[in-house]
Design a protein that fits this description.
Blueprint lengths: L1 E5 L2 H10 L4 E3 L2 E4 L2 E5 L5 E3 L24 E3 L1 E4 L2 E4 L1 H16 L2 E5 L4 H13 L6 E3 L7 H9 L2 E2 L4 H28 L12 H16 L5 E11 L2 E2 L2 E3 L6 H10 L3 E14 L7 H12 L3 H13 L15 H4 L2 H6 L8 H7 L32 H17 L4 E12 L1 E12 L29 E13 L8 H8 L9 H6 L8 H13 L3 E4 L2 E4 L1 H10 L7 H15 L4 H22 L11
Parallel strand pairs: 1-4, 1-9, 9-10
Antiparallel strand pairs: 2-3, 3-4, 5-6, 7-8, 10-11, 12-13, 12-14, 12-18, 14-17, 15-16, 15-18, 16-17, 19-20
Length: 604
């Protein structure tokens, strides 16, 4: 008997349906010589400190460095405290009985780091020795599932993926457990001050930006504006220089004449290439900007679309596809010819050579970029439809032609030098898909500029002195935070450079949404409109840890890169020793750092 294990019941049942297995049992399905069972996400986790003899919260126990980690059944909160989840225990017993009878096990948990960890922890906890193979697919369509089963991989091919996942799990336990207890104990408070390998540098980024914004002292500066008139079309030109004092600006304003001489006209065409296809992080950013969805909402909606066979694997960190997938893109695009919003552009793309900017097999990680599968969506909620359209629309954008813009700069002399600038889209190209307004035009004074020639003299219809103030960096919202987390806190606007830095980011696309939710649940941050701001508790923790390594985004980003290298075969033991050394150091730092901390009591 072959036993297939999926990550959750809905996926297990869907795979069973593809095989025609319809007999329902308690905790599994069977038919056609196969048995299909499932986990409920993480059934097992690394055991709590008391399992290793570290009882209570005691300075003498720190640092806690188990010689060998143990696995424990997931716990739930009850009135009697944390207890084993009885549903998990029951399902594990069912899985064990099935594994005992199996001739072969097929792993169908999500094809990624956490999916591998979920299965391996079950496999090792049950002390199973049966051989297993891996189903590795990027789509839940019937065709993809069947093709995946025809091309099962040896389970050993993913040993390094498990090593990376297990190292991540161990490092989170070591840093989180020790740092949390050290700071909580040293603070002298009854509050549990949770710290973590990824959550603390994320909190530090939010707090640092908040304080920078709050303490920002705006500087006043002055400009002079004039309005030349070209055959009835008035446009605005701004003084070439900014002025520190009103008097300086007034002097320039007084010199403005009744006419202005067009000293120069520069009109330069510029090609704006289409955006890359979406990975999870970029889609979360777009959904936050367009719809105000949280990162967690977007992931949940996308996961639902994936399980409904409408989009490819959601937790990908790649924005590229290989040539094999690209070969299927024209047929995918054709599926949208009758789409109410995208139909015209889909039909247009069917007649032209597709842009291959997003095609690069070397940049595809475990899974390629997110694409629609070509299945017809039915009965989607408004939110599901919004996310689906973002995926489909981005596919059309990514394979479209460049947007051609003309950037115009007019220099006007009228007592002093004034500059008028504007951007005109000549050929919308990929921007026609969503009919997006050019981002750059939002800050420009002129939507369009009249045609003028060098040497022309135009009447000046108005002039004004403008008082302005410098602005602080905006508070983080979910979109801007996700963008910063990709590059370990470094603000990088260049899309391709940001891609290159991704291996050094904080967390992974699959975990960042959960990290934001964790900080919210722990009352370290709160949502204010669209912004993420620290609470008084979050700021208190930040003030203590901000100079310590646990708050450094670059350090944690470097670890994330190391975990990816372990996936490629790098030494596990070296990383483990490095984490233990770090844990010893940060524990001692925090035992000293928390003294004198003032916090609201939340209880332990």
């Amino acid at each position: 008997m072959k036993v297939i294990i999926a990550e959750k019941p809905s996926v297990g049942r869907e795979i069973a349906k593809v095989f025609g297995a319809t007999t329902k049992k308690d905790g599994y399905m069977e038919g056609k010589g196969y048995t299909f069972t499932w986990a409920f996400g993480h059934l097992l986790q690394l055991a709590a400190p008391q399992e290793y003899g570290y009882y209570g919260w005691n300075v003498q126990n720190l640092p806690m460095l188990p010689s060998k980690f143990k696995l424990a059944i997931r716990k739930i909160k009850t009135k009697d405290g944390l207890v084993e989840d009885p549903g998990v225990r029951k399902q594990l017993d069912i899985i064990k009985a099935l594994f005992d009878e199996a001739t072969e096990i097929i792993v169908a948990t999500d094809a990624g780091r956490e999916g591998e960890l979920i299965f391996r922890y079950i496999y090792y906890y049950l002390k199973c020795k049966k051989p297993f193979k891996r189903l590795w697919i990027s789509s839940q369509t019937d065709a993809a599932i069947k093709d995946g089963f025809r091309n099962l991989k040896p389970g050993s091919d993913y040993d390094t993926l498990f090593n990376s996942a297990h190292c991540r799990s161990q490092s989170d336990w070591l840093v989180g457990m020790n740092a949390t207890q050290a700071l909580s104990l040293s603070s002298g408070s009854r509050a549990v001050l949770s710290l973590g390998r990824v959550q603390t540098p994320t909190l530090a980024m939010i707090c640092a930006r908040y304080l920078e914004n709050k303490n920002f002292v705006p500087q006043t500066y002055y400009q002079v504006a004039i309005q030349p008139d070209k055959d009835g079309q008035v446009f605005k030109a701004i003084s070439e220089k900014n002025f520190k004092t009103r008097e300086e600006a007034q002097a320039v304003l007084n010199l403005v004449e009744a006419t202005g001489l067009i000293e120069s006209v520069e009109a330069q065409p510029r090609k704006e290439p289409p955006p890359l296809l979406h990975d999870l992080s970029s889609l979360q950013q777009e959904a936050n900007k367009r719809k105000g969805f949280t990162a967690d909402q977007t992931l949940s909606l996308l996961q639902n679309l994936y399980e409904s066979k409408l989009v490819t694997y959601p937790r990908t960190g790649s924005r590229y596809i290989g040539d094999d997938v690209f070969a299927e893109v024209p047929a995918l695009i054709a599926k949208f010819n009758d789409h109410t919003e995208f139909g015209k552009q889909a039909a247009l793309l069917g007649e032209m050579k597709l842009n291959k900017r997003s095609v690069n097999a070397k940049k595809v990680t475990d899974h390629h970029a997110i694409l629609p599968t070509g299945e017809t969506p039915r009965n989607l909620s408004a939110d599901q439809q919004a996310i689906y359209d973002m995926v489909a629309g981005r596919m059309l954008e990514a394979f479209h032609v460049d947007c051609i813009k003309e950037i115009t700069k007019i220099t006007v002399l009228s007592g002093s030098k004034f500059i008028a600038s504007g951007t005109v889209i000549q050929t919308p190209g990929w921007r026609a898909v969503f009919n997006d307004r050019d981002e750059e035009k939002k800050d420009e004074e002129n939507a369009t500029l009249p045609k003028v020639t060098q040497g022309e003299v135009l009447p000046i219809t108005d002039k004004a002195l403008l008082e302005k103030q410098t602005k602080p960096k905006p508070l983080y919202n979910e979109a801007s935070l996700l963008k910063a987390l990709e590059t370990a806190g470094k603000e990088i606007d260049d899309e391709e450079l940001r891609q290159a830095m991704k291996d050094s980011g904080l967390g992974t696309p699959a975990t960042r949404a959960a990290m934001i939710e964790t900080l919210l649940k722990r009352n370290y941050i709160a949502r204010e409109k669209k912004n993420l701001v620290p609470t008084s508790t979050g700021l208190s923790v930040y003030e203590v840890v901000k100079t310590h390594r646990i708050a450094q985004a670059e350090l944690t980003g470097a670890w994330e890169k190391r975990l990816e290298e372990i996936r490629g075969g790098a030494s596990v033991s070296e990383f483990q020793e490095e984490i233990k050394t770090y844990t010893r150091a940060i524990t001692q730092e925090l035992l000293l750092a928390g003294k004198g901390m003032v916090l609201t009591e939340t209880g332990r």
